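Expect chain and fold; thus:
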Amino acid sequence: MILRGHHGSKEEDEIMWNLQTIYYITFNRQIACLLEKGRFPKLQKLGVHISWIPKDNVHELLSSLQRLSSHLNKLKLFIEWKQYKVSESSNLKHMEWHIGCKPIELLQTLQQFSNLSTLKVIGALDLAMCDIEFPPCITKLTLTGISFMNDDGINAIANLTRLQRLSLHGALEFHDSFEINCSAGSFKRLQDFLMLGLQVHS
């Protein structure tokens, strides 16, 4: 779905006071402008389809999401991939995001979401190998389309002290096995752990 502003209407009339859920909306300059102007003051659940963002506009558009930081509690990000390619340094296939930013830059825009309890990233790729800070109040985290994992990614997830449900799904081209090494006391509140398409060895 692509949402655009209404031309010729008053600003007060464009504010959608009762809207609480939007799934899935194409993230572009128009929706960023609506978010920046506070058009959805009570939005609690948002699904965003990110297909491509010009590199010059990445930070400007992603910063508009921060307008929702005080009231959004459920966020789904559907991120489109570039066609995967073979790395010259190895025989492994690596896929890239088809957007103009790195995974860590995207997650940095979400760190101020104090009420975000559910985060789902579709097309996570190498997000699970980044030493990043997820929004602190997440209780349910889903990463799909994972292309690689390492200790940095596991530790970043383990730092979510309120996490209760964790779902990790590998990409179709995920063939590398890896270890899950957790420090003592990690995942204290974890109740459900689902892992599909990933090869773990001890």
The chain has one domain: 19-200. The radius of gyration is 18 Å. Confidence is low (pLDDT under 50) at residues 84-95. The CA atoms of residues 93 and 173 lie 7 Å apart.
